[in-house]
Write a structure and sequence with these properties.
single chain, mainly alpha, 17 helices
Amino acid sequence: MASSEKTLRRSAATDDPTADPVRWRILFVLLVTIFMTLVGVSIVNVALPSIRQGLNASQADLQWVLSGYALTFGVVLVAAGRAGDIMGRGGLFLIGVTIFTLASVGAGLAPSAEWLNASRFVQGIGSGLLNPQGLGMIQHYFRGEERGRAFGYFGTAVGFSVAIGPVLGGFLIQLGGPDLGWRLTFLVNVPIGLLAIILGLMWFPRPLIERLPRTGSGLRSLDPVGALLLGAAVLAILFPFVEAGGGPAVWLLLPLGLLLVWLWVLWEQRYVRLGLSPMVDLKIFATRSYTNGITIMTLYFMGMTSVWVLVALYVQEGDGRSALQAGFFGVPAALLAAYTAHWAGSRVARLGRMLIIGGLLLALFGLALSVAVVVLHEAGYLSVWWLMASLSFIGVAQGVVISPNQTLTLAEVPLDYAGSSGAIMQTGQRIGTAVGIALITAASFYTLSMSSWSTAIIVGFGLIGVMVVLALLVALRDVRLRPARGRRRF
């Protein structure tokens, strides 16, 4: 009798994945992995001065350390998402974790800046493989308010990783010294990656990877031509921003990238006419919640990602603090982001896009307050440690904006395209991150060459504020143009 009950429960879980209790274990594996990848990103911000000293790296090398990861991440995202939709997300997720973990070993043992950047490129590939699978699995296993809570836990993991990353990085740099310390900031990913692989092998449903059929559509179901066209387009658009010192000719890649996007759209439309499944269902762009959500996230990441880069550089190189001290500046903000992500995730079904608007307004307030702290500190009126308080508003904004916006953006996406549609959203984030870091740090360093650190921070934070205002305008327009939908938020 007990055996038949287990069989019935297993059958029900297969028919309805949202009733399968293993989904919470799967979510835990996703959160462990996201924690690992984001700890790696937040540590790098603190480790830049030590990398410069330890490897005698140039400013261009440091730019690649920051942006090279985003470049390869963005190139493989959508193709990896579609492959997961067709072949199974669990197996590709674990392959991505393995690649990321091995690349972390390569980065930690790097003998030169070139080796380090090559390892960062491979890290980006691994992260690009695993991230859309994670988003796809959350959409697959969770619905409605439960999905909002799942994305809230996702945001909490992001917040904790951002909080721990800089402090852990500063501690490791102080413990290991200028050469060994920054290496440990990459090697710390290895035990976390191994844990995620072991748990994934234990808990992910079988088969991990579905074999493509040998007859019929076969390989064409992956739309390889579409994958190559979109990957080349993302590469052409991102490259000028991550290699801004390559001369005027490199900017010719931008119109080439736009041309490739146009060719990709034509190809996807042709694929549909042939009766094949395209890489991305272009009809999804007619869904207002999806297109507005992508636009908001692209603009938000274009601005806010640079906050922590500028703060880490300012407190170390502009104010003479250690890497460990620099790591503490973002801790209150990250912990508040972790808490508010969970808080907002449980309320996004009721409050909808108004949460996003409130978060963006808080971000603007935090930026203005941080500029005031820097100016008053340079004038001798305030301690630089007051930045911890002003940046806390930015942390609250992060928790209220990112996870709820992911929930709203993906709410009306067909599950058959969950991975690729989520990957399109993440591609927008990566393009925004790369473009924002390149432009905002370049403007800040140019200002610094002619003026003081306080002026450079004003310029950098001012540009960030412009991006946040644009995101706010999109969110306000989204709310204003959706009255016919009544109270239904997603």
